[in-house]
Specification:
Elements (H helix, E strand, L loop, with lengths): L7 H7 L12 E4 L2 E7 L9 E7 L5 E5 L5 E8 L2 E10 L4 E9 L6 E8 L9 E5 L2 E6 L2 E6 L5 E4 L7 E6 L2 E5 L4 E4 L5 E5 L17 E7 L2 E6 L4 E5 L5 E6 L4 E9 L2 E8 L8 E7 L5 E6 L2
Length: 297
């Protein structure tokens, strides 16, 4: 059970086939608040998932901690309304179950969907809610929708292999492929695309995976967590790519988000010595400096 309970980036993301590899959990911005999924306490060998909460002028603090071992949280927000997928691993059946919650900062979560078996790894590749009774989620190689109590069906098909989906606005979605990214409307019409996102011939990529693990879009710019190169990159409105932060082993970048003019950059220190990963969360400022949000040595 201890090995199953290790931090999800290691267990559920990297000891599965490459096509499914993606950090479980994510980073969202809800107004002035920033929320992300991790483990509480950080060194917990039984992996009780936690949603952390931060706003400027304060220290990060736990918002919700799961009562279940080997659990995960995945997040999506529409304005100040936050939707949460909570996942737990049932050891006796070796199956995952999920439920869907709805809340706001400082509010008690409301359960929208009761626990059910998750055969599709819902939320790992991003998700959003069309309404309280229908979820849309990315699951390699496509995007699916699921009505409460039903089976998933294809949401739309752009003829490309899709690893994840990110809700940008009411009529904008960001789709991430193996080394490509597409901005589409909510019917799948491609508005903008970026190709060859992993051009570098890298050495010592974490777990030998040269790939983009997360991306965000704002006002023509694309922000990338380039796992393979241990860097955070930005593609501007003219298509010019720059490396805004270069990290070194043992840091591995995995989440990004725009925060107004600032950029949120989340990586983890991963050392294969039996210890849990440690967070390394920074904010990239307009003057090209960085400010610490959450770091554990």
């Amino acid at each position: 059970m201890k090995k199953i309970a290790l931090f999800t980036i290691v267990v559920f993301a990297f000891f599965v086939p490459d096509i499914l590899a993606h950090p479980t959990g994510n980073l969202i911005v809800a107004g002035e608040h920033v929320l992300w999924s991790y483990v509480n306490p950080i060194d917990d060998p039984n992996h009780h998932a936690c949603i952390m909460l931060w706003q400027k002028g304060s220290e990060p603090k736990p918002f919700i901690t799961s009562e279940f071992e080997a659990s995960d949280f995945m997040l999506y927000n529409r304005a100040d309304t936050i939707y949460i997928i909570e996942r737990r691993f049932i050891q006796r059946s070796l199956k995952f179950e999920i439920r869907i919650l709805k809340t706001g900062v400082g509010e008690k979560p409301e359960q929208l969907w009761d626990w059910f078996e998750d055969r599709w790894r819902i939320g790992e590749g991003g998700f959003f809610m069309n309404n309280d009774d229908e979820i849309v989620f990315g699951s390699y190689p496509s995007i699916f929708k699921l009505k409460k109590g039903s089976e998933p069906t294809i949401y739309f098909d752009i003829g490309k292999v899709i690893k994840s989906v990110r809700f940008i606005s009411e009529n904008e979605l960001l789709l991430l492929g193996d080394d490509k990214c597409w901005l589409t409307d909510n019917r799948g019409k491609i508005i903008q695309q970026w190709e060859n996102l992993t051009p570098d011939s890298v050495q010592n990529a974490p777990l030998n995976r040269n790939q983009i693990f997360d991306a965000d879009y704002q006002n023509g710019e694309l922000l990338l967590a380039y796992w393979g190169n241990r860097s955070f990159d930005l593609i501007d409105v003219e298509g010019r790519r720059s490396r805004i932060v270069q990290q070194q082993e043992p840091l591995a970048p995995h989440w990004v988000a725009f925060f107004g003019e600032k950029k949120l950059l989340f990586s983890s220190k991963i050392v294969f010595d039996g210890s849990n990963p440690k967070p390394h969360f920074e904010m990239f400022l307009p003057n090209s400096s960085t400010a610490n949000i959450w770091k554990e040595q």
